[in-house]
Amino acid sequence: MNYRTASARGHAGVFAGVAIVCVGLAGCASSDDITGAFSAPPTETRVSAPHTVARARPQTRPAAPATTAGHPDMTPRALARDEANFSRCVAALEPKARAAGVSAAGFRRYTAGLKPDMSIMKKLETQPEFSRTAGDYVDMLVSETRIRKGREAMAQNAAVFAEVERNYGVDRYVVAAIWGIETNYGSARGSYPVIEATATLACVGRRKAYFRDEFVAALRIVDRGDIPESHLRGSWAGAFGLTQFMPTAFQRDAVDFDRDGHRNVVDSVADAMGSTANKLKRGGWQPGRSWGYEVVLPRRFDYLLADKNKRKTMREWAALGIHRPEGRPMPPGKETAYLLLPAGAKGPAFLMTGNFKAILSYNPADAYALAIGHLADRLRGGGPFVQPWPENLRALSRNERAELQKRLASRGYDVGPHDGAIGAQTRAAVRDYQVAAGLPPDGMASGEVLESLRSGS
């Protein structure tokens, strides 16, 4: 989903101990669950390694809703004002739309009688935040059902996937994995009219500046005939298509792969898969390389090396005692990667290549990119991760994460804003505290760290 964050891309790329609120190409434009991807608990069956005994995990419950009621543009009076001014606001965007290539006749046609959908404001104002660990998140998305459906979808569209891979050099299984995780291979695309949804958000509430460009881009899509207006439906934030593009992302990355004169990522599997591969290629995908590798760490490992800024060659990692499980060979020695511990020192470890970063360009959440890579490997016939996820790991709620930040700040650590969003600054502070407290310095904002802070140790 591409606005999703887009915060592109901001705070969502955090793992265990942090709620994951962003999934998909439409990406993320903020830490909001702007596509509603976590509006309900998952129901799919988890995948467990066949040689392990199934175990109960701590119950994951919805955290307190993340609200923005205090924002001046989200008060009842402000929303009523914006609703009353909606038609004038839309009309005022005509010069912007015309400058972007929307015809005068098209603008009049697609905005005539347009009304705001005020129910969207409730989704924007109060978004359910389901706090999940990285293990829960990956297992939720990489289910046996999704694997089976993905293999069927790839078989039905084998020629398309082969041609997409030839043209863009992007692993066909990664493209298929994005399709599977974004819309469950097309079965869950959303039903909101994109023009109405983006117009609402462009003229009502606290995200007007961002959504004006999305609204104009949506008008341009239908005006130039790429996708019929009646087919342009998606999430409440405007993400649409088989792999969930936001309108502006569509303008940048969509391609007419089936060569019918239209870039239709809603109705054409070829256009959707080609556009997805194009986005990944633009994000830096390197042909013939994996997204990453599960690895095993030696005892007494220096966890300070688990840092995205500390890239080493595979040969250098091997010299530190890192190896792949089950005797699998290490990748070429000159390839570089960084070490990622999605569940902290007690969970599985991964060496991430530049292609993992390319997946992050689609959605900046580490857990999302890990799920994409793992689903791709399962689709091609690979097995589950060998190392188990920690049994008693619990994701912190937003309030608990904010408390952790405040407690760190009270001890003199620079964590940035006390907003419950765990970014690089907070992770660095957590790591420094862990060193001082004698904990493994994996940088994870976990329940263990919070309890240590509470106890005053």
From TrEMBL:
PANTHER family: LYTIC MUREIN TRANSGLYCOSYLASE (PTHR30163:SF8), MEMBRANE-BOUND LYTIC MUREIN TRANSGLYCOSYLASE B (PTHR30163). This is Lytic murein transglycosylase. Residues 398-453 form the Peptidoglycan binding-like domain. Residues 55-69 have a biased composition (Low complexity). GO terms for molecular function: peptidoglycan lytic transglycosylase activity. Residues 86-377 form the Transglycosylase SLT domain. Gene3D superfamilies: 1.10.530.10, Bacterial muramidase, PGBD-like superfamily/PGBD. It comes from the Bacteria. InterPro entries: Lysozyme-like_dom_sf, MltB-like, MltB_2, Peptidoglycan-bd-like, PGBD-like_sf, PGBDSf, SLT_2. Residues 40-75 are annotated as: Disordered. PROSITE patterns: PROKAR_LIPOPROTEIN. GO terms for biological process: peptidoglycan catabolic process. It comes from Ancylobacter dichloromethanicus. Signal peptide: none annotated.
